[in-house]
């Protein structure tokens, strides 16, 4: 499975793409950071971000998309920029019919390092090892995007398959119920 993962941000947006399956070796496809100047107006920055992300989707052809879940912060402008970036990624994925999964930072840290309280250095070290890289991905936004992609392969892919199986089962049950005839009393038949 090829996963495109985004550590959303308006100034620095980490993007990482990996190939992998649970229990199998993971491989790096591409990693980078999209930057927009803080001096530009927000609409201009959003357009630039959308154009760059669209190129990532077209170039790497992912099968699934993982995004770090926005969490509350005291800096409202940071939260808004992160949420706006998240919306762009979701829109691009939806237009391509790709499943999108949001993962919390704690979930990502736990998946990659074994501890939801791991610091950035520990996460970066594990990302470097798990992907067999010669050197750690820089800046931290790039490493975070790769950690998110790894988390998705190991956890999100399974969650998506379980959700799809549950949905298929519910659809099958609904179809069976819809095709069962409802007994209708005929004229003259005793009612119970």
UniProtKB/TrEMBL annotation:
Binds 2 Mg(2+) ion per subunit. Keywords: Cytoplasm, DNA damage, DNA recombination, DNA repair, DNA-binding, Endonuclease, Hydrolase, Magnesium, Metal-binding, Nuclease. The keyword ATP-binding does not apply. The keyword Lipid biosynthesis does not apply. Its EC number is 3.1.21.10. It holds the Pfam family RuvC. The active site is at 7, 68, 141. One of its GO terms (molecular function) is crossover junction DNA endonuclease activity. Transmembrane segments: none annotated. It is found in: Cytoplasm. Its cofactor is Mg(2+). One of its GO terms (cellular component) is cytoplasm. It catalyses: Endonucleolytic cleavage at a junction such as a reciprocal single-stranded crossover between two homologous DNA duplexes (Holliday junction). InterPro entries: RNaseH-like_sf (IPR012337), RNaseH_sf (IPR036397), X-over_junc_endoDNase_Mg_BS (IPR020563), X-over_junc_endoDNase_RuvC (IPR002176). Mg(2+) 1 binds at residues 7, 141. Mg(2+) 2 binds at residue 68. GO terms for biological process: DNA recombination; DNA repair. The RuvA-RuvB-RuvC complex processes Holliday junction (HJ) DNA during genetic recombination and DNA repair. Endonuclease that resolves HJ intermediates. Cleaves cruciform DNA by making single-stranded nicks across the HJ at symmetrical positions within the homologous arms, yielding a 5'-phosphate and a 3'-hydroxyl group; requires a central core of homology in the junction. The consensus cleavage sequence is 5'-(A/T)TT(C/G)-3'. Cleavage occurs on the 3'-side of the TT dinucleotide at the point of strand exchange. Homodimer which binds Holliday junction (HJ) DNA. The HJ becomes 2-fold symmetrical on binding to RuvC with unstacked arms; it has a different conformation from HJ DNA in complex with RuvA. In the full resolvosome a probable DNA-RuvA(4)-RuvB(12)-RuvC(2) complex forms which resolves the HJ. Belongs to the RuvC family. This is Crossover junction endodeoxyribonuclease RuvC. The gene is ruvC.
């Amino acid at each position: 499975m090829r996963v495109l993962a985004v550590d959303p941000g308006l100034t620095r947006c980490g993007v990482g793409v990996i190939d992998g399956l649970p229990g199998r070796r993971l491989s790096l496809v591409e990693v980078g950071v999209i930057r927009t100047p803080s001096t530009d107006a927000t609409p201009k920055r959003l357009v630039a971000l959308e154009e760059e992300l669209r190129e990532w989707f077209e170039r790497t052809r992912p099968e699934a998309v993982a995004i770090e879940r926005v969490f509350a912060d005291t800096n409202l402008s940071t939260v808004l920029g992160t949420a706006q970036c998240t919306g762009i990624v979701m829109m691009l994925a939806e237009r391509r019919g790709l499943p999108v999964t949001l993962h919390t930072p704690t979930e990502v840290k736990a998946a990659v390092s074994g501890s939801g309280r791991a610091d950035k250095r520990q996460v970066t070290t594990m990302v470097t090892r798990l992907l067999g890289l010669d050197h750690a991905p820089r800046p931290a936004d790039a490493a975070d995007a790769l950690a998110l992609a790894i988390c998705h392969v190991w956890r999100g892919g399974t969650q998506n398959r379980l959700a799809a199986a549950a949905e298929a089962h519910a659809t099958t049950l609904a179809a069976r119920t819809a095709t069962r005839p409802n007994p209708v009393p005929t004229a003259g038949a005793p009612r119970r």
